[in-house]
Amino acid sequence: MSRRALFIAALAAFSIPQAALAQDIAVTNATLALGDGGAPIEHGTVVVRGGKVVAAGAGVAVPAGVPVVDGTGKWVTPGLFSAVTDLGLWDVEAVDESNDLEAGDSPFNAALDVMPALNPSSQHVAISRAGGVTRASVAAFNGHSIFAGQGAVIDLAADGAMVMKPRVFQFVELGEAGAKLAGGSRVAAHVALRNALREARELAALPAGAARQSDAMLTRVDAMALAGVVDGRQPLYVGVERAADIRAVLALKGEFPKLNLVLVGAAEGWLVAGEIAAAQVPVITMPLRDLPEQFETLAATQSNVGRMKRAGVKVAIGMFTGGNQPRYAPQQAGNLVALGKLPGAAGLSWGDAFAAITSIPAEISGYGGQSGNIRAGVLAPGAVGDVVLWDGDPLELSSAPLEVWIDGVKQPLENHQSRLKDRYKDLDKSELPKAYDW
Amino acid sequence: MLCLTLGLALSLTAQSADAKKKKDKGDQATTAMPYPSTYKPYPGRPTALVGATIYDGRGGRIDRGTVLFADGKLVAVGGADLAIPDGYDRIDAAGKFVTPGVIDIHSHLGDYPSPAVDASSDGNEATSPTTPDVWAEHSVWPQDPGFTRALANGGITALQVLPGSANLMGGRSITLKNVPSLTVQGMKFPGAPYSLKMACGENPKRVYGEKNQKPSTRMGNFAVNRQTWLDAKKYMNDPDADRDLGKDTLVGVLKGEILVQNHCYRADEMALVIDMAKEMGYKVTAFHHAVESYKIADLLRENDICSAVWADWYGFKMEAYDGIPENAALIAHAGACVVIHSDDENGIQRLNQEAAKAQADGRRIGIDIPDAQAIGWFTYNPARAMGIAGQTGSLEKGKMADVVLWNGNPLSVYTRPEKVWIDGALLFDALDRKRRPVSDFELGQPGEGDVK
After folding, report:
1. CB–CB contact B316 A271 (8 Å)
2. CA dist., res. A184 & res. A334, Å (int)
3. Which of B315, B325, B334 sits opposite A123 (nearest CB)?
4. Left, alpha or beta for B82 (phi > 0: left; psi -120 to 50: alpha)?
5. What is d(CA A193, CA A218) in angstroms, rounded to the nearest whole number?
6. What's the whole-number mean pLDDT along residues B391-402?
7. In whole angstroms, what is the distance from residue A89 CA to residue A140 CA?
8. The pTM is what?
9. Are B55 and B366 in contact (CB under 8 A)?
10. What's the burial of A25, exposed, middle or buried (CB within 10 Å: 0-12/13-18/19+)?
11. pLDDT band at B31 (very low <50, low <70, confident <90, very high)
12. With bands split at pLDDT 50, 70 and 90, how would you rate the model's confidence at A373?
């Protein structure tokens, strides 16, 4: 069975329990954002049946028998799609025992695969779900190598089965961090990357059972893991910030034409936006960085996303790791809308800003309708039934989800935080200690 | 109410009693004030902001109001009927909002500047668990581009730069005017009291435990603190002791001249710190980070201690596991003091947004905090907890004209500062690209003078 067939089989297996529980629902008369880059639609309706969107728009009729949620005065949107997160990889970021983010002492690198470590019971998952995040990609951090290993795409449904698809991409760190990992310079990082790709190519070309060259530096499983990168089946996410480093990454396609590149970071992307667009390489970035926090981000500006978008680059808001929680995505997108009012700044329209946290990251992650994968991050017929009902404009600071459905299944929004809030709404300890209040 | 007021009374008593002693450490600790501020307000024009929604920082709101300032001071704040004297530049602010300058009580700008390279990483003197002798101002790099972003995007007009939290006693903080300057003295907020940065919990015990030295536990944290305070008291009462920079700071605290800003996350530890302060005879002004303040908001109210908090950070370390987004609202609901802080060179650009999130999280559990009160979380309340509320933090006649004109409601994500005045001088204008500071570091580099 081919790798792709395995993926599809796995997807089907994971999807079955959700589909079995999916409810039919319709949300009516809400302000509707489709996630496709368009402006919000007044008095919109969304219909989900069998776990999938069947219709979304104004003037959509609700089929008989479908339970209706009145969305009057509320907003309805697709679930947020968070690209490049650490969801499910830690309980407490700084508590090593609870944390599977990196494996600095492992002999392996590219073969590392986050899938078996993903923990759907992590509070970080539950809190993100309550924030309207329904799908995400997950990447580990680099341990001792420029290769961080293979990331997965997940859903955040509270059903214990979070992996939609494992080994969706490989992550390689270049730039300042990659230089350090590779032995002290960008030069070394680029040699390490090229050598790894060549070893992967050579291994893939060997007859079964044949010996590898004796000077191979990668372990066999690491070289095997990179085979899909070399032939373009598996996207290569490249952590890189500086304009010159971006150019060096784009140039890799000259040597390895099938590379399926995604830039992660690209703080100086706006300086080379035309080249990124021409290479048709998408970008996942943190949009509000505007400081020269490293020398490789001297030109950082909050207008980076807007300028890249204007140049034709497909840009998603992402990189939700550590303190940068996935539930902050709407705030970040909203800030890009605010930029539109400032002379000299490049912002996004509301629709484009919302797409940057829904359909665009879904597309970059392989869930934009590419063959074999369902669509996510958008309310369109056939897309996953991920729907969020908000108490206001989802990009506004005062708004929050009221209801979240994933694959048409209504999700619990309780978590450790909400239980603490319930307990400490009042501080009355006169009868019994707070430990009895639950 | 303010420990500053109490402290001044105490110090006067101490000075009169000890006037004839050979030396008075209290004088040396604070009143001598070496490295004095050289800040002078920059020139401004008499200005009238007309037609805006005004939040005064102390809970007041005026619709379609007028703010007048001249010669660096606020002249009047009133309604549409307020007369505009001759000679004032009139700015039509209809549909816009005016607040006091934003104040961050917890910043490391300058001490941990951008770029974050080891060569200028100067925020933690992590060589001893108690370093009350170090002063954050001696680490501030005034060319940190972070100051300019805080001004342009955050409307920050004053900030407190603290030493880091590696140490139990990290050293003295410094309060700055957010004005571009060649020297830190040119930023020092005139007359602002010093604070001592203290830290409880994980950081000190981790940093020193890893060096196999005391403290390696929370009980070690307290033991080291208590002994250090006892030694300081002995020093305070010994006129013949050789001068000790660290103990000078601690004596300043014991006399109430130096405030205490105490990094502390957990409710149980804050309660212990409150008792330690009582045992040793000092006052904690604010707990910083304080993600569990909501569990002891009553205790904090009773002890008149502010909580300087994020809106919703949690989970990044064990002692932050119980952080909840309703923290600020629950503290305020209990009648205790809330300050929204950043501890972050990016977060300092959006304190208004963090306050808005925290306000909304309260509203969802039935705690309705008016917009005008939430504005105080990043203006008047930090000023109060930094001991500068007599000079800034609110729009009141005679105070410093530290003012932000926002292009919309500052509690909306769609709003940015349009103009920022510090002591009446226009130091940022989103509509005038040259009215945007560019640090020496950024000259001639990619992105110089960009909108950021």
Report:
1. no
2. 39
3. B315
4. beta
5. 11
6. 98
7. 8
8. 0.94
9. no
10. buried
11. low
12. confident
Instruction: Check residue B9 and give its pLDDT.
Output: 37
CB A267 within 8 A of CB A285: yes
A153 strand-pairing partners: A137, A165
Confidence of residue A370 (pLDDT cuts 50, 70, 90): confident
Alpha-carbon distance of A319 to B172, in angstroms, equals: 36
DSSP SS3 for B233: helix
Rounded to a whole number of angstroms, the distance from the CA of A65 to the nearest CA of chain B is 32
Cβ distance B184 to B110 under 8 Å? yes
d(CA A263, CA A247): 11
Half-sphere exposure of A170 (CA within 13 A, CB side): 29
| pLDDT tens digit sequence for A226-256 | 999 999 999 999 999 999 999 999 999 999 9
pLDDT at A23 over 90: no
Rounded Cα–Cα distance for residues A176 and A196 (Å): 19
Find all residues with CB under 8 Å of B335, minimum gap 6, and list them.
Answer: B297, B301
Average pLDDT over residues A152-158: 98
Predicted confidence (pLDDT) at residue A46 exceeds the cutoff of 50: yes
Residue with tokens 């390696």: B216
- Smallest CA–CA distance, residue B355 to chain A, in Å, is 9
Across residues B283-293, what is the average pLDDT? 98
Q: Is B214 helix (H, G, I), strand (E, B) or coil?
A: coil
Residue B426 token pair: 């226009």
Contact criterion met (CB < 8 Å) for B321 and A416 = yes
Choose among B283, B291, B324, B121: nearest CA to B201.
B291
> What residue of B is the nearest CA neighbor of A271?
B446
Residue listed under structure tokens 């590392």:
A112
Contact B324 A420 (CB under 8 A): yes
Gyration radius of chain B's alpha carbons: 22
| pLDDT above 80 (res B27) | no
Residue in B413, B418, B439 to test binding to A, most A beta-carbons within 10 Å: B413
Out of 3.30.70.360, 3.30.2350.20, 3.30.2130.10, 3.20.20.140, the CATH code matching A3-423 is: 3.20.20.140
Domains of chain B: 3-42+102-392 (3.20.20.140)
pLDDT tens figures, A385-426:
999 999 999 999 999 999 999 999 999 999 999 999 999 999
Backbone dihedral angles phi then psi of residue B239, each to the nearest 5 degrees = -65, -15
- Mean pLDDT score of chain B: 94
8 A C-beta contact, residue B88 and residue B70: yes
Taking the CA of residue A330 and the nearest CA in chain B, the distance in Å comes to 9
